[in-house]
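Deliverable D5.2: sample structural annotation.
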Amino acid sequence: MRYWLWMLCLLMLNANAAEHDFSGIIDMRASYTDSIDSHVDGGLGKYRFNDGGQLSIAQAGLSYQVDWENAFAAHITANGYLDGVRDGLGITEAFLKYRGLPYQQGYRIQARAGLMYPTISLENIATAWSSPYTLTPSSINSWLGEEFRHLGAEFTIERLGKFTNSQHDFSLSATLFQNNDTAGAMLAWHGWTNSSRQTLIQETLPLSNMPSLQGSLAEQARYSDPFIELDNRFGYHVNTRWRYQKRGELTLGYYDNNADTRVVKNGQYAWKTRFFHVDNKWHLPYKILLLAQFMQGDTLMQSPDGIDVVNNRYRAAYLLLSRRWQQHRLTFRVEGFEVEDRDFTLDDNNDESGFGLTASYQYRIQKGWYLQAEYNRIDSSRPARAAQGLPADLIEQQWQLASRWYF
C-alpha cells in the first residue's frame, strides 16, 4: 500500500498541464462527555472523547486534487487530530478517478482506483469525509470511518435520464479490493460507537482490557491492524442506485471482504465480514432533507483449525432529518444498533443493543465558517462491560460546541 501512495504522490507532483485544487476543514471543539474511557484509546466508551471536558482540534483535513485535460483526476486526503485522546496525522484516502463523457442514450462510465472508502455513506459527503449535518456521525458511518478503507478498483456505469427526457437516473457499480481483512474485529470487541475520528492509514486500534486476551484470545495481538492484507484474496462490493431528479435517491448494496478465516499472521486474524445496506436520501416538503440507512450482516473469526472463536450477527439503522434556512441548519437523528453473539466462546460475550439520539444546530457566520452546537445520547446494554468492572447498562451523553472552517 505504501508503494501505491508514493506512486500517486509522484504522479500528482509531476502534473504540469492540469488544474490543481486544495480544500480543507479546521474543526475546533469544546466538548464535555459524561461517559467512560473512549474506545479510541482502548476503553469501552461509545464516544471519541474520554469522560470530562476537552478542548481539541477535532479535525484538520486537507484534500488535494489534480484534474488533467482529459477525463482523469487524482485525489489525496490527509487528516490530523489534536484531541488529547489519540493525536495523529496521516493519509485517509488517495485514488485516481476517471469520469467519461456521456454516450448516446445517456450512458456514462466512471471509475476509481486506489485507497478509498466503500461508496456507502450519506452523511460524510463534505471535505475530508466530514459531515455537513452533525459533528458526530451515526453508528454506521462511525464504523466505516474506523475499520473500512481498502485498496481496490471501482467501476460504475450510469444511465442519465435527461438524455431520454426521463427524471430517473440509474447506476450500477462493482468494486474489487484488498487490505480490509480484519474489518469486524473492533465492532465485535468494543461494539457500535458514535465517533467523528477517521482511522489514519498507518494507525492500529488498541483493544480494551478484555479478560479473554488472557484466555481464549491469548494469540490475538493487543491491537487490530485495520488496513492489512492477510490472505491475498479479493473482496467485492456491489451497488445499484436509482435517483429521482431533484427528489431523492435509493441505493442497495452488498459488501463481502471474502476473507479466509483460517489465516493468522503476527496475532492478526482474518475476519470474514459481509453485510447488505440500504441507503435513502429524500427531499421532503418544507425544505426538509431526510437521510436513512440500514445495515445488516455478520462477521466470523476462526482459529487456524477452523473452530469459530467469534461469530456475530449485527445490524444498525438511523433516520436523520435536517433543515437549512438562511444562515441556520437544524438536524435531528435517531438510531438503533445491535450485535448478536452466536459463538460458544464463554469468556468473550459480544452481545449488545442500544439506542442513540443526536440534536445539532449550525449557524453560518460567513461563507465556509460555521458555529455548531450538538447534543448526543446513547443508551446501551453490553454485558462484556461488567467483566471489566463497568456497568453493563449505561447511558452516555456528550455536549459539543465547534467552530468549523471549510476552505
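Annotation notes: Residues 42 and 168 are 47 Å apart (CA to CA). The chain is about 5% helix and 55% strand.
The annotation will be released with the project's public dataset once the embargo ends.
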